[in-house]
Amino acid sequence: MSSIAAPVPLGTPRRAWLTDLPLLLVAVVWGGSYLAAKGITTTQTVVAVLVLRFALVLPVLVVAGRHKLRALGAAQWRGAALLGLILSGIFLLETYGVVHTSATNAGLIISLTMILTPLAEAAVTRTRPPRAFLGAAALSVTGVVLLTQGGGFTTPSLGDLLMLLAAVARTVHVLAMSRIKAVRSADSLSLTTVQLGAAVAVFAVIATLPGTGASPWTVALGFGPREWAGLLFLSVLCTLFAFFVQMWAVRRTSPSRVSLLLGTEPLWAAAAGLALAGDRLGLPGLAGAALVLAGTAWGRRAAGQDAG
Prior knowledge:
Layout: H1 13-40, H2 46-64, H3 66-70, H4 74-99, H5 103-110, H6 113-125, H7 131-147, H8 158-179, H9 181-184, H10 188-207, H11 216-222, H12 225-249, H13 255-262, H14 265-276, H15 282-307
Helix pairs in contact: 1-5, 1-12, 1-13, 1-14, 2-10, 2-11, 2-12, 4-8, 4-10, 5-8, 5-14, 6-8, 7-15
Transmembrane segments: 21-40, 46-65, 77-96, 102-120, 132-152, 158-177, 189-209, 229-250
Main location: membrane
Organism: Streptomyces gulbargensis
C-alpha cells in the first residue's frame, strides 16, 4: 500500500480505540468467513458461490475507483491480472478446503501464511531468518500436526491438505506482489479491483466447464434466505467492508498495529467453529490450536524485530 499516505500519529487513547475497533471487526468477520462459506457451499457449488461472491462487489469497486483504474498503465494491468490469477487459486483451494474440513481447522491452518511468507522471502533473498523465528515456525508446524489429529492420530483430511496448499498459495501471492515492480506504484483500490476482476473471470470460465458443478444462475435461484445472508456476509463484510477499513486504518495507525489486530483472525475462526458449528478438537487438537496461535504470534514478533 505504498500509495497510501503516511500514518497520522494518534493523539489520544480514545482515537486509538476508534481505529482499533473496526480493524478488530475485520478480523472477526474474516474469522467467521470459513464458517459462512462452509454453511452455503458444497463440493458441487464451490465455483458458482465464488462467482456470485465477487461478482456482487466488483461493480462497487469499479465505480469507486473508476478514475484511478483509467490511470493504470499496461504493465500495471498485466501485473495485477497475474496476481488475480494467483488469487483465484487461493480462493479455490480455500473454498474446496473448507468444504472438506472444519471451520476451526481451516482458520488455524491458513494462519501458517504468517510463518511461511517470511521463510519463503528468506529463501528467495538467501538470508537466514532469526533463530527465534525458526523456533516459532517449528512450534506452528507442530501445532498443525496436532490440530489435524484432534480425534486421534489419523491421516490429515483432504480439506486440511487443501488449506495447507492455500497457505502456500497465499505466500506466493504476497511474494509476487512484492516482486512485480509494475504493481508497487499502483493505487491499492485499483490493484484490488483488477485482481478480483481477473479472479472472477477465471471462476466464470471454470463454471462453464463440464463436471464443475451447478451454474451460478442455478445456485442463485436455489438459495434461500439463510444462503443469501451467508453470501452477503462474505461479499459485503468480508470483502468490501474489510478492504475499505484497511485503507482507512492504515492512514491512521502503524502497519504493525494493523497486522497485529488482523492477525487475531485464526482466534476468531476457532471461536466461531467451536461455539457455532459445534467443532470438537479433543485434547490433541486443543493443544495444536494453542501452539498454532502461539507460534504465529511469536513468529510475527520475531519477524518484526528482525525487520526493525
